Amino acid sequence: MMLLTETVASFVHTRWHSRRGLDRARFEAWQHRALHKWLTHDLRQVAFYKDAAARLHDLPVIDKATLMGRFADFNTHQISAAQVRTALEADSRISDVTVGASTGTSGHRGLFVISERERYRWLGNILAKALPDMIWQKQRVSILLPQGGALYDSARKTGRIDLGFFSLIDGPEQWQSAIETFDPTVIVAPPKILRHMAETGFALAPKRIFAAAETLDPIDRPIIEAYFQQTLEQIYMATEGLLGVTCRLGRLHLAEDAIHFEYEAVGDGLVSPLITSFRRSTQILARYRMNDLLRLSAQPCTCGSPLRAVDEVVGRMDDCFEFDAAGGAVLITPDVLRNAVLGASIDITDFRLCQIARGKVLLRLPLTVTKGNARGAQQAVDRLLRARGVDAHVDLEQLSLPLETTRKLRRVIGMPKA
Ligand SMILES: [Zn+2]
Questions:
Q1: What distance in angstroms lies between residue 308's CA and the mean position of ligand 1's atoms?
Q2: pTM for this one?
Q3: How far is the CA of 310 from the centre of ligand 1 (A)?
Q4: Quick one: CATH architecture of 2-316?
Q5: pLDDT tens per residue, range 320-373
Q6: Measured in angstroms, how far is the CA atom of residue 104 from the centroid of ligand 1?
Q7: Domain ranges of the chain
Q8: DSSP codes of every residue in 174-235
Q9: N or C end of the chain: smaller count of CB under 10 Å?
């Protein structure tokens, strides 16, 4: 009961501190106070920050390698990465703490620990952002995500929400009839799964649909929206927590009521965020460098939310291509590469573009694309590279691109980092 209260309190807190019409300056003043309180009270409770400064900008920037290398020093229970991995094999619990991992290539998985109280708070936060107007009626929410089962388990206990969790480890033929019987009012799933449902004609009539867990490419959106006859919303989340949710106008707002964002410029108008998670205290994330690439909105959203709007989550740093050119190293971001391929023909609704060597790129297209259009896309990528002063070879291959359920879908894939 105490935990349910935590969910409700968090729901109210989130609604209030990011309410419509709240002035940005007043929001920032509140955030600054909340952040300062966290820096003075919670930060130093973990070994890594025991003697740390209380000013955010005096703290070091932390990357994934540092966090994973000294995992126990970043949480109050001093749980090591090895203990997390052992617990993941069993019930994902260590005393009253839940542990989890992101899907990633083995060895590069992000790990997290979260207390029971924080899980309920997280749930209230996500409900307040995603379903504020729907919470008063009973909802059946289907969650189809490759990870984090233990996190969402808490929703089953709220009474108003009937949660159906479907594992993506199993192919869709394994759960299609189960989800159709469950008849969800809300579906949260990676865009490729929503698109699969649309293209194969799942018998579903949800009131709301959310893309989550993977980059939402512009080619998936119209197919999903046409089938479900509604606007596709977006939940931006990662191992590091809930990072943003779209508003009723369809723009993504960052979860600044729980996370403080700083930005590092990447080029092409994109930024990569450093996050400070000031509402969590079991595992401390301060100035943590995310790999994501965001295009921030130049204008505030007209919905009236004080939270910063993002035009697009473009992908991850690992999706960038890197080349050696006469003038020095050249970095090309995944959105530019994607647009080159898709801009070549409206006939192209799926593709893979991989950098396989310093001077070599491979474009894969489905067999449904005509030879002429395929060659047009190959030439478009080639022109882009030349325009950037890059001398690289673009190979073309046509084959069937199957639905990938055990891995994250990445259409643009950079070279693996050593
Ligand atoms: Zn908005």
A1: 9
A2: 0.88
A3: 9
A4: 3-Layer(aba) Sandwich (3.40)
A5: 999 998 888 999 999 999 999 999 999 999 999 999 999 999 999 999 999 999
A6: 31
A7: 2-316, 320-413
A8: HHHHHHHHH--SEEEE-HHHHHHHHHHT-----SEEEEESS---TTHHHHHHHHHTS-EEEE
A9: C
